[in-house]
Amino acid sequence: xxxxxxxxxxxxxxxxxxxxxxxxxxxxxxxxxxxxxxxxxxxxxxxxxxxxxxxxxxxxxxxxxxxxxxxxxxxxxxxxxxxxxxxxxxxxxxxxxxxxxxxxxxxxxxxxxxxxxxxxxxxxxxxxxxxxxxxxxxxxxxxxxxxxxxxxxxxxxxxxxxxxxxxxxxxxxxxxxxxxxxxxxxxxxxxxxxxxxxxxxxxxxxxxxxxxxxxxxxxxxxxxxxxxxxxxxxxxxxxxxxxxxxxxxxxxxxxxxxxxxxxxxxxxxx
Amino acid sequence: xxxxxxxxxxxxxxxxxxxxxxxxxxxxxxxxxxxxxxxxxxxxxxxxxxxxxxxxxxxxxxxxxxxxxxxxxxxxxxxxxxxxxxxxxxxxxxxxxxxxxxxxxxxxxxxxxxxxxxxxxxxxxxxxxxxxxxxxxxxxxxxxxxxxxxxxxxxxxxxxxxxxxxxxxxxxxxxxxxxxxxxxxxxxxxxxxxxxxxxxxxxxxxxxxxxxxxxxxxxxxxxxxxxxxxxxxxxxxxxxxxxxxxxxxxxxxxxxxxxxxxxxxxxxxx
Lengths: 270, 270
Fold this sequence. Notes:
2 copies of one chain form a homodimer. The first copy, chain A, has 270 residues and is an alpha/beta fold.
């Protein structure tokens, strides 16, 4: 009798709806910038990021998740919220989730969202913003976006040479910042100068941050890459050049750390 | 005649000394903490890091490099410096360098260095230090070390739950900080309180950083992980609890960015 029960248990079959190979191919292609542009979509992975997206009203077209008996409570609750908001959800295999994932272990849930309409630089008029030049490291860009969000900056302008802000690594490090910022890509600092911001560039040879008099709001903080700093061309457009002096022989600060210190000091709004 | 020349050129044979499989196995094992402890060594990859190590007088036992005709000028000059300092250098294949590398592309040069003798907490007496609790992300730990170095902090104490500071990713993100700091591992905050530092813990519910009166030197800044913050036990040992208030609905700051802001504000030494 025991053998019979064992036999019945062993033939339990799990039916998981398979994602079509065409759809899987299209989704994995979203890990690359040109396909994100082509399809106007990007990927959002993990409970925390998807929760932020849902609460910010981001348009999520679909959400894939692992089978119910493998879900933790946070994942279950996220999927329920998505269903309640009318977002199509679909169970899929760990293998598929891993193919879509940007990390070594998938996070059980992944969604696809529409890229927001490109913001117009003009809409930053009257409000402070951060202009980034040649920030190519996705983790650094994401961390800067997260920091800007924390301090209440609403506008981020990226030069043409910056990494795509919808690159999965940038989105992951941003931790929800993307849904709460206006991001201007292919931005031109010269055009920006027409909007009336005080332009403040960060450079190792600038005026020490702590000796600065108050900077007038709205202003535009300009930061460059760790390797090259703010270009001479952009420095020439700046009203002020500031620095974060160190006390040692160290070469430089991480650009996201420098951005945090500058935003903390300058963008001090109630 | 031309054919003959071509023939001669084509039989040029490159003799690259092969690293023995035993040595390669031992070296790759250094990417794991337990083998670093076992052998008392760690890996240093890339020109910039090795240059910092050489100029800080780090004991490098050996340096491997790619063949001369594949080296760039920076690599050549580094290898020359190493030779002048009496460090054994050896040519090896791209394949071997990639096996030793922590990144997707090897950086042409990699060295093995002796782990420094564990520092004694007592030697931080009279000087400010940074105590880190459960910082498990290697990139964050490395960036914090780099930031501490920049601001002239000399002492870093790590709780038992922190990632190993000689993990290759930490070393890479540290960008030379390791050679210029005293790093105390398995540190205990309670023991530290006996050394007379003012203990200042960072927590979201603490006193806002900008309203702080000057903190007396020497002090010990305590920071926890992004997920858990500073433990209640450690907060109970603190003389002061401080925070970096945000102006938005964002969840938290990146821990390395927060460390940068706190160190910039507090450790303001000439």
